[in-house]
Write a structure and sequence with these properties.
With 332 residues, the protein is α/β, with parallel strands linked by helices. The protein has 2 domains: 186 residues, Isopropylmalate Dehydrogenase (3-Layer(aba) Sandwich); 131 residues, 3-Layer(aba) Sandwich (Isopropylmalate Dehydrogenase), CATH 3.40.718. It has 11 helices and 12 strands. The strands form 2 sheets. The chain has a 10-stranded mixed β-sheet with strand order 2-1-3-12-11-4-5-10-8-9, sandwiched between helices. Helix 1 runs parallel beside helix 11. It is globular, with a radius of gyration of 20 Å. The two termini are 21 Å apart. Bound molecules: 1,4-dihydronicotinamide adenine dinucleotide.
Amino acid sequence: MRRITLIPGDGIGPEISDAVVCILEEAGAKIDWDIQTAGADVVATEGCVLPQRVIESIKLNKVALKAPVTTPIGKGFRSVNVALRKELDLYANLRPCKNIKGIKTPFEGVDIVVVRENTEDLYAGIERKIDNDTAESIKIITRAASERIAKYAFEYATKNNRKQIHAVTKANICKLSDGLFLEAARNIAQNYPEIKYKEILVDNLCMQLVQKPQQFDMLLLPNLYGDIVSDLTAGLIGGLGVAQGANIGDGCAVFEPVHGSAPDIKGQNKANPAALLLCAINMLKYIGEDEKAQNIEQALYSVIEQGKVLTCDLGGNATTTEFTQEIIRHLK
Ligand code: NAI
């Protein structure tokens, strides 16, 4: 039995977590889930959104599967997600986006891996109100964090037979901060002559991504651009319902989907658990359970390719429960 932290989150989080736990169990994965709640729901009883017990659990188990947690917009507490990444120094946010057979999108042949720096940039949370009509947020970029994420991207490319990395910035405007990010990326690129290194401005990248996404292999971005661009690339392959992600550090890894807590469909048995399931599949590969991972992956992809039982976001009308049961039926 492998002990793994499970953060069920809120909004649609608990529904899709139940679905994924059920599929993994049916596939015979021997996991002892260490369930840890976080977010607005625990504030009343524990006084904070991210209790220390959650951090300790992940540090101990080294691996976590995390469903989304709501963050209030424009007010209220800071993001649990951002805090978790900082506390555990999960510096690399990995978001692979590849076409899935059966999901109709405007483009074929999309296979892009987004590597997003996860610990600094505007997410450092240094903000202040100068006066009633003026506010400022500070964007922090350091050489150490930029070189570390660049090295992660080039190592990933080497291990996964990737050929090209684009470093993405707005260095024409943010000359110092994004300029430093580029300088670090160039330094690291020199050590990997077999991988083609290119640079592109984020606005041009967005335009190119919605015109000819197939030209891109891996993207290396500071935190904010990475956040935005990875939602765009998720859209290219069928939307947030199938976009997986992972936050990786030197000590531990937290696997979580790109999407949020989708409060608009909470409790309606409509949510697509596929993104969290893809995260769980990657998590199984990460802990060496390749066979179980492949079985579940095959089942998920067959259900999507057959197209008979799909959730609303994928153009069907199946409930979360029906979609989950269909995946279980396809397990070998
Ligand atoms: P969202 O990703 O929750 O929803 C955007 C749209 O996509 C909605 O229409 C939603 O119904 C749909 N959607 C998302 N996931 C889906 C799924 N699995 N199946 C079917 N439809 C799905 O983004 P939004 O509305 O901007 O954020 C809601 C909350 O989630 C916010 O509080 C935000 O801060 C939080 N959030 C949390 C994240 C995390 O925990 N890692 C990541 C992103 C947002």
